[in-house]
Amino acid sequence: MDFLLSNYPPVRTNSQTFADAFYNLLPQTEKLDIAVGYITSDSLSELQKAVELNHVQQLNLIIGMHYIEHFTQVEYKTAMKLNEFLRDNHAGEVRLVTPFRYHGKLYSFQNANGNFAGIIGSNNLSSIVDGQNRVYESSVLIRDGNILRQMNRFIADLTEKATENIADLQIDTFKSNNSLLDGQDYVEKATPEEIAKCMNAKTDITFDIPVKDTPQSNLNVFFGKGRETMSTGVVKPRHWYEAEIIVSKNITSQRGYPQAQTETASFDVITDDGWKFKCKVSGDYSKNFRSEGDLRILGKWLKGRLENAGVLITGEPVTNEVLNNYGRNTFSLTKTSIGNLWYLDFGGK
């Protein structure tokens, strides 16, 4: 038995993290059974991608809390999409616990010889997404055959007696769309006073930056090649919300645009929907536009708006059709007269 710990400072240990252990086990896994309380839309997409990249033959996912506490519409659509993928490929299913709230977190890994590892602890499915919000989790990696058999029997019992396939349930009540940036590191909620001050300080220096639908880059990095660890053969998918916008030279060369390797390269932004975070430009001709500290901040802000508008399903590419349905294929970057503060606007039209 080995402890799996988040290892955030100041409490660093020599233990693996949950995500490290999970992905290290995948190349050996033919069948993966998961029973957790909560999921997120991006963790569902990354789970599907990880299963594909590492050639896991069967995945069965039990979701324990959302039938009673409800999904957001984005989470529900993503769970339905994963279930359809698994059923169509005869590779498992997604089931919901219906008679009670199930808050456990069990992960069972099997190969041709049977169950060879399991994880139990505090990690919900979002823990497979590296670098998620800094909540310190603790779990244990188990290889004891007797305990693994007990875990498998419980998962089978739970499946048979307390779950139904998500597609067989009538679900029409949803949570309001909670912002993806709530609780995100390096992001704050702007006060009404800060927003008003920023709006009143806007200058005429403004740029309309295209939200490109390029395959495998810009907002579609998720569909690019996963990150492979050569020593273990583990392939991790790129994060669903990872994003870096490539801006053309005819924009970056205009008067007032932030310039890489200068004091203007890193700057604060306030968004039209009231968030504060830092962005930066880098690369030749200042062509790379990204959020600072975490590439997923900009991705959550842009792709989250598309998801909440109902035009993008988590796990599907951002296309020209998606942007047309949203009514906008650019976001605006406007300089203010307040220091190095800019205003970002991606409001739907």
Give the quaternary arrangement of the chains: single chain
Shape: elongated
Strand content: 25-35%
Q: Based on DSSP secondary structure assignment, what is the total number of beta strands? A: 18
SSE series: EHEHEHHEEEEHEEHEEEEHEEEHHEE
> How would you classify the helix and strand content by structural class?
alpha+beta
Average the pLDDT over all residues and give the rounded result. 93
Helix content: 25-40%
* Spatial strand order of the main sheet: 1-7-6-5-2-3-4-8
Residue windows where pLDDT falls under 50 for at least 5 positions: none
Radius of gyration in whole Å, from Cα? 22 Å
> Mind describing the biggest β-sheet?
8 strands, mixed
Short key terms for the protein model shown above:
alpha+beta, eight-stranded mixed β-sheet, single chain, 349 residues
